[in-house]
């Protein structure tokens, strides 16, 4: 998908236009980012066809900020813009793995005020997430769902190749439990964002990201696996 490297709002326009064509062709888009900004125009196109969608969002950060340096579009604001435009079914949004530094004492207040289910990373430590995903499947029901996976949801011990690493994150095994736990849902799109391979000389972050995308492919509706 072509983007304008010198104009972020125009890049969003180009992404939205491209995904309108992709979604119209009955394709379920599986996207490699890019930073998390891209999810905003993708969801504009997806919601245009499916209406407000549920969201399974794995991330160290809520990405519901309002502005940065006066700008309303950047990788920390996509889901606030989506809420404002009615792209999300807020009663069917879950955010998993949130943690890290914050600019205010209650960083999850906006999310909870919208009706999101917030699952901080500390609620995931030292446990399987299979029971959580059983609850998430019930929450999502049979209506359209989008999966957005920021690689920094994982601990930087496993995925250091990202722009905003935060300690004490999820494990690769938990990431698989989350994605595999989405099997059976009415998934209308997925993305894997914020992978920056140049920050990881081992190549492990790119390898992990590729495997997570493969796992997302395997849980898409009507995909047959052995």
UniProtKB/TrEMBL annotation:
Keywords: Hydrolase, Manganese, Metal-binding
Matches recorded under PROSITE patterns: ARGINASE_1 (PS01053), ARGINASE_2 (PS51409)
Pfam families in the cross-refs: Arginase
CDD domains: Agmatinase_PAH
Record bears the keyword Metal-binding: yes
Residues engaged in binding Mn(2+): 36, 59, 61, 63, 150, 152
Known cofactor(s): Mn(2+)
Cofactor note text: Binds 2 manganese ions per subunit.
Keyword Metal-binding appears in the UniProt entry: yes
Designated name of the protein: Agmatinase, mitochondrial
């Amino acid at each position: 998908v072509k983007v304008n490297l010198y104009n972020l709002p125009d890049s969003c326009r180009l992404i939205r236009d491209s995904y309108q064509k992709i979604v119209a062709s009955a394709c379920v888009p599986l996207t490699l980012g890019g930073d998390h900004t891209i999810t905003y125009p993708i969801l504009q196109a997806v919601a245009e066809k499916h209406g407000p969608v549920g969201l399974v969002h794995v991330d160290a950060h809520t990405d519901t900020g309002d502005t940065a340096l006066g700008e309303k579009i950047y990788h920390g604001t996509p889901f606030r813009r989506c809420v404002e435009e009615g792209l999300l079914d807020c009663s069917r949004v879950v955010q998993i793995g949130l943690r890290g530094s914050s600019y205010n004492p209650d960083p999850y207040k906006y999310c909870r005020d919208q009706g999101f289910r917030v699952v901080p990373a500390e609620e995931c430590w030292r446990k399987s997430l299979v029971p959580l995903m059983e609850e998430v499947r019930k929450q999502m029901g049979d209506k359209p769902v989008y999966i957005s996976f920021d690689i920094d949801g994982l601990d930087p011990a496993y995925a250091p190749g990202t722009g905003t690493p935060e300690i004490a994150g999820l494990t690769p095994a938990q990431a698989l439990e989350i994605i595999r736990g989405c099997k059976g849902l009415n998934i209308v799109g997925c993305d894997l964002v914020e992978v920056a391979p140049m920050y990881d000389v081992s190549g492990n972050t790119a390898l992990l990201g590729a495997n997570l995308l493969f796992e997302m492919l395997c849980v898409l509706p009507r995909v047959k696996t052995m």
